[in-house]
Amino acid sequence: MEVSLVGPGYGECAVAHVGWGEWIVLDSFLTSKREPVALQYFDELGVDPAQAVRLIVATHWHDDHMKGLGDLVSRCPEAYFCCANALGSREFLSVAAALARTGLPDGGVREIHAALSHLDRTDSQPRWATASRRIHRSSTCEVWSLSPDDDAYTSFLKSLAPEPGTGQRPGIDALTPNELSVVLLVRFDGGISCLFGADLERRGWTALLRDDARPRSKASVFKVPHHGSGNAHLQEVWDELLEREPFAIVAPWRRGRGALPKPEDVERILAHTPNAYATADSSAGPAPRSRWVKKRLKNLGARIAPESGSPGMIRLRRSLAGEDSWRVELFGSACHLEEFAA
Ligand SMILES: [Zn+2]
Question: Is the pLDDT assigned to residue 215 strictly greater than 60?
């Protein structure tokens, strides 16, 4: 078994080897060669993604999770594509299609639109993620989506409704996709589980914990939600969904002056487990570039290089039989969370 999290300081992607050469990919960002990072990693491992990838999950459409996703889906024909049920709604599809007609801006919605359009052309059905749904079964594990819950679905559809006075639909920027994040539970036969928290915030976790139909298993690996942010922290998640002192893996987020995790987030995570790692240290990632400078560069016709810093990866491996814990390997700028200084 392998769970790896890659993140250069902006952008994250997780891959999991679930046994017998089968892989799962969650989210995507582009390498400096403009290639989906998962494809580069499979290339390094000598894995053929067209055969090996069985499930691709788009947790939500924020740009830091989606770059290259459309490409990834079209190059992995054996994989099911999974995203939040709300993204299959007539309301969302008409907003995305309207954006596509006007020339969709480079970003997360375009990637989701590209992935869904590809499936449409190849007559494949996406797997719609919702609370407590088994979305995949392989020879060694089950994969469950644990969110989004019905309330998140309903309020998302409401937020897409045209304004009563003007009939205008809200811009996609006005929507908040974190609440629609797909949390994933991978349950291996033999009782080992991994929980991928996407960017789900506190309200969503509260609903998830209340759901009676949720599979009851405690995870030993936790992809910490929302880049370690305090707004995604809920004590009950650690108490009820995780084993004691799990392997907590964090992909930091750094943009402009904003940075996650904050020092208090690092402290909180370390108070829960000594086995905590970040894919990049706090100095990784692009130097902050002001809005004015960006605009100026654009006006000059300059091509702005992809904003990725030095890539970092946390790799956890474990044999399904015989090993009682995960082996940790750190690559690039990945570090123990204690070394992560904000
Ligand atoms: Zn994010």
Answer: yes
Question: If you count them, how many residues does the chain have?
Answer: 342
Per-residue pLDDT band for 285 (boundaries 50, 70, 90) equals very low
Ligand 1: distance of its center to the CA of 12 in Å? 7
pTM: 0.89
Per the model's pLDDT, the better-predicted residue between 158 and 40 turns out to be: 40
| Average pLDDT score over residue span 163-170 | 76
DSSP string, 225-237: GGGG-GGG--HHI
Q: How far is the CA of 61 from the centre of ligand 1 (A)?
A: 9
> 64 CA to middle of ligand 1, Å?
6
CA of 166 to the centre of ligand 1 (A): 32
Question: Taking the CB of residue 113, how many other CB atoms lie within 10 A of it?
Answer: 21
In this prediction, residue 77 carries a pLDDT of: 95
What is the Å distance from ligand 1's center to 145 Cα?
Answer: 18
The whole-number pLDDT of residue 204 equals 95
| Residue 247 Cα to ligand 1 middle (Å) | 20
Q: Which helix (H) or strand (E) holds 44?
A: helix 37-45
* Architecture of the domain defined by 2-339: 4-Layer Sandwich (3.60)
Q: How many whole angstroms from 226 Cα to the centroid of ligand 1? A: 6
Q: What is the pLDDT of residue 308?
A: 43
Residue of 269, 272, 283 lying closest to 337 (CA atoms): 269
Residues 29, 49: Cα–Cα separation, whole Å: 16
Centre of ligand 1 from the C-alpha of residue 182, in Å = 12
Could you give the percent of the chain with pLDDT greater than 90? 63
Residue 92 CA to ligand 1 centre (angstroms) = 20
Domain parsing of the chain, residue ranges = 2-339
